[in-house]
Amino acid sequence: MSDAASVLNLGSGRRKMAGAVNLDISDQVGADVVHDLTVMPWPLPSDAFREVHAQDVVEHLSDTVRVMEEIYRICRNGARVHITVPHFSSANAYTDPTHRRLFSYFSFDYFDADHAFGFYSDARFKRTRAQLVFYPSVANKIVHRAANRWPLAGSFRRGSCRSTWKWSSERRENNRRPDAPPDDGLGGDRSA
Fold first, then answer.
1. Domain boundaries along the sequence of the chain
2. In a designed cystine with 123, which of 19, 69, 75, 187 is the match (CB 3.0 to 4.6 A)?
3. In contact, 75 and 81? CB cutoff 8 Å
4. Which positions ≥6 away from 8 have C-beta within 8 Å?
5. What is the number of other CB atoms lying within 10 angstroms of the CB of residue 18?
6. Residue 186: which pLDDT band, with cuts at 50, 70 and 90?
7. pLDDT tens figures, 42-74
8. Which H helix or E strand runs over 44?
9. CB-count burial class (<10 Å; 0-12, 13-18, 19+) for 74
10. What CATH architecture does domain 4-130+166-171 belong to?
């Protein structure tokens, strides 16, 4: 796979990325790969991508743990993963009837081996950045700063803010739990 094709744009829709492998469920948007992301394993090679983008797609999928395990499977060691989802405090999180999951500032921390509940999955990522992004307005500039400085405070949930949660991470290699069975590369049950 060429270095340019080692970038994956999951759920590309009409936001195609030049030089990336653009994957979408719709055959109407000109995606390079047409696939329903709820069907796993995805038709993508293991350890292939150095960068994965998932903008406004993960909230449409019902099994976040399996999705993260598939992203882990297809990423190279050290790959950068960029996920954007609507924050639960955003009206947009509830407006779209196809949204299956809500996310907070800390939702993806469960995929870090150092997290207290990191035992739910063998997929391992290290967060490099998390940010709440608000619709641009004078008031939201202040809210944006406060929400990202003190994400536990919760005061940013009041008012008519449109917030999106952006998360960037790196795939971590050799950071599996000691009792985890070997990876079969398919992202499924590895204990059989």
1. 4-130+166-171
2. 69
3. yes
4. 20, 21, 23, 44, 49, 51, 52, 53, 74
5. 8
6. very low
7. 999 999 999 999 999 999 899 999 999 999 999
8. none
9. buried
10. 3-Layer(aba) Sandwich (3.40)
Decide: 125 and 170 in contact? Cβ < 8 Å.
yes
Closest by CA to 50, choosing from 5, 111, 98, is 5
Pair 13, 1: CB distance under 8 Å: no
Q: 3-class SS at 110? A: helix
Q: Which of 93, 95, 50 is nearest to 71 (CA)?
A: 50
For residue 68, give both structure tokens. Answer: 């993260």
Beta strands across the sheet bearing 33-34? 33-34, 21-24, 7-10, 49-55, 75-86, 163-171, 125-134
Tens of pLDDT along 74-116? 999 999 999 988 877 777 777 888 888 888 888 888 898 888 8
Is residue 158 over pLDDT 70? no
